[in-house]
Structure formats: structure tokens, C-alpha cells
Amino acid sequence: MVSADFPYAERYPVNRVLPEHGRPREEILAELREMAELEDRTWESGRVSGTMYSGDHEHYEFLNEAFGRYAHVNVLQRDICPSATRFEGEIIAMALDLMHAEAARGSGHEPVGMVTGGGTGSILHAVLAYRDHATQTRGVGSGGFNIVKPETAHPAFDKAGHLFGVEVRTVPVDPVTTTVTAEAMAGAIDADTIALVGSAGNYPYGTIDPIADLGALALEQGIGLHVDGCLGGFILPFGQELGQDIPDFDFRVPGVTTISADTHKYGYALKGTSTLLFRDKAVRNSQYFAHTRWSGGKYHSPGMEGSRSGGLLAATWASMVHLGRAGYREYAREIFTAADAMKEAVRSHPQLRLMGSPTFCFSFTSDVFDIYHVYDAMRARGWRFNGQQYPNAIHMATTRPQTQPGVVEAFAADLSDAVEIAEGKHAAGEVAASSGIYGSVPEALLDQADPVIREVMAQMLDQQQSLPPAP
Ligand SMILES: *Cc1c(COP(=O)(O)O)cnc(C)c1O
């Protein structure tokens, strides 16, 4: 039986135990090559949203060589790899430069950063740092601590709250702009609030929260403001230089105290790194960990991880110094050009509605029919988008694979077909196949549905970590 989760079950042997005798390297590499080539085909066409930010195999080969040179090195042991300090220090310095940390330096702060394992890692460390800094400087309030985020801000903030015992207060966004207002955020603040969150841009709609207003609010309240630039951090600054309508969201904005920016997204590095930047060294250092009396020796680490691979630092550094500002700007120009053309294709259909004023990443819905009819028809034509809920919408993050010749034109043509099909299905009273899986649950069923959805999610995770059924 070949299921979607186990397409290789019949093609290759299934290792149910650690084999007594190993196989030749060449044989294993051939098998790996075969699976990778099969899987590359799904995104090389440019029809997959997000996920493959570079998509350039020559770039990947270059990164893989950089990674391979240092993959076996543990950067916790700097005495044998001082190169890691060069990589890490320079990655942080370059990211701080991109976020205009010089503006913070002028106001008497010492901007610093850290390299984490990904966007989630950067957000976790930001929340941890705010919590520990607040604990050290003002003491825990009677109600513990809380942070305030727009509902569109990434679930990693909720994960951080869950892990570190910080309450996460969620503020609804304006349904038209898809961003929060400072007034709405102010309503959720109390004496135990340690930080606000704003996104540049948010994942669901690719829109940018009013960072200047949030910064002013944070300053007035004497609390932090984290700008989540996980997605936008390495592309919005170049979009701004190219004349796209992008407001300042970095350390030039008073009140911005931390920024996350993912090198493993539009930094075009390998998966597994991100940067977290601080206006003030004291906040970063508040979450440093040290054990001075361990029998294994004196132990300290900058973040939550212990041993880390030198390969990821080397590859991230290599990507940044290879591309430089001019390289990033050129990729940004191509991506914004493709995104603008795709958004124009959406706008050309009166039945579709683009949500807010999005950037390189955008969402659209319909007030006429269930947008999942469009999703179904586009999927049949090879497109992979993220299906969104509350409200139902289709999400597209434009990356380099979409800048290949013909992709934008194919999107426009397939979208026209899909809209026509959707109108027909809607008129016939048909229910979209994907709507029940990805779409919003009706208000009245929410409480009942929640435990069921959680159970299905757990089963999916279980399946991803299991073996195909025995023959
Ligand atoms: C991707 C993303 C994150 C989380 O990053 P991971 O790298 O998936 O852990 C956080 N915020 C935004 C806006 C993102 O797009």
C-alpha cells in the first residue's frame, strides 16, 4: 500500500531496526539523490508558495560546501574553532547594520544580537529575554508577566508564552487593513505587560503593523517592542530602497527594542538559522545561562541550545557575504516585480479581494464564493498555496522560483480559469473539497470542533514520526 505519507515504502527497504551491517556509501547517496530529485520537481516549477526562498541549485551547492567544511564542528567549543566567532560576530554585525542599529547607538544603547536556530528560536529568545530582564529589573508582578500581540503575529509567540509562563494577550486586527492600531493594543496593556509585538510583515497577509505608533506606545508605557521581521527582515529593507511603499520598521523607529530577521528565509541561507537583534545588550544578556559549579566543568551558553553546528554559521555567513547588498537588492527587485504582477492579476477579478496593502507576500479572498473553490482549481493546476481561515483566504509568499520566466503569466491564466470554475461550482451549490480541511469552522461548532482538530493534528504529527504499516 502506497500512502501519501509513505510513498517510498515499496521502492526502498524500510529500516525497522538498526541494520547489523551497513550499506556502501555510494548506494546510500544514490538513494538520497533519487528522492531529492523527485521532491525538487514539485517546487522547481515556481508553483509552490514560500518555503524555497532561493531555489537556485548553484547557490545551494555553494552553501553546502560551506556547511560541509564545518558541519562536524561544535561551536560551543570555541578554542578549536575561532572561525565560528568570525562567522557569528559578522552575521550579527551585518544584520544589525541592515536594521540601522547605528540609530540606536546614537541614543546611548549598545546594540547586540544572537544567531538562533530559526524564526521560532528568535521569537522564543526574545520573549525569554524580556521575561528575564523584567524579572531582574522590576520583579515579577502579582499576575505574572504578559505580552500583547496582534492576532496575525506568529504562533511562535504563543509557544513562547506556553514554554516560559508568560501570558499572551491577542488583539484583533482591523478587517480592512489587516493590521492592529496602537489604540487597540493599548487597551490590552496593564502593569504586568513587558512587551508589545508588531510584525513587518505578518505571515497571514504580508502587511506591516504601524510600527512607529507601536514604538511610541511602548516608550510611553516604558515597555519593550519586538518587531517580527522573520519573514520581511531580509527583503523589506531592499524593497524600501527600491521605492516600494514600506514604512520604517527597524531601530530608526524610537521604541523598537528587539527585531527578529530570518537568515533561513530571504537571507537565502540553509534552513536552521535566524538572527535576533537587541537595541540594548542588557536585555540579551539577561537570558544568558551559566552554571558555575557543575562537576563537568564551568558551563555557559548564549541561548537555549547546547552544542550547535559550525556548518550552519558558515553557510549563513557565506550566503550574506556572497550576495551583499547589491545581490539582495537585485533578488528583491525581481521578487517585488513578480509579486506586484500577481497581485495585479488578483485585482483584475472583481470577484476576488486582496486583503489590506500587502507586500511581497499577500492573501486574497472572495465575497462572492468560497475562495476554496479557487484553491481546489489552482491545486489541480499544480499550485500549492497556504489555505487560511477566519476569514477563508489563499496565501501566497512570492520567492525566487516565481521570478522564473512564465510563472507570473501562468498564475494569471490559471487564476482566470479558477475564478470561472469557482463561479460555476458556487452556482451549482457545490462545497469546495479543501474548505472542510483548511477553512474556518462555523462559530456555533467551534467549541465542539476544537478537541477534534487537535486530535487530528496530533495524529498527523504521530504519522510523520512513524513507519509505514508492516506488509
Ligand atoms: C516563518 C515565520 C516565523 C517563524 O519562523 P520559523 O523559521 O518557521 O521558526 C515567525 N514569524 C513570521 C512572520 C514568519 O513568517
Automatic annotation (TrEMBL):
Pfam families documented for this protein: Pyridoxal_deC
Domain of life: Bacteria
Chain coiled-coil ranges: none
Keywords of this entry: Lyase, Pyridoxal phosphate
Cofactor(s) listed: pyridoxal 5'-phosphate
Family, per entry: Belongs to the group II decarboxylase family. Sphingosine-1-phosphate lyase subfamily.
Name the UniProt record assigns to this protein: Pyridoxal-dependent decarboxylase
High-level lineage: Bacteria, Bacillati, Actinomycetota, Actinomycetes, Micrococcales
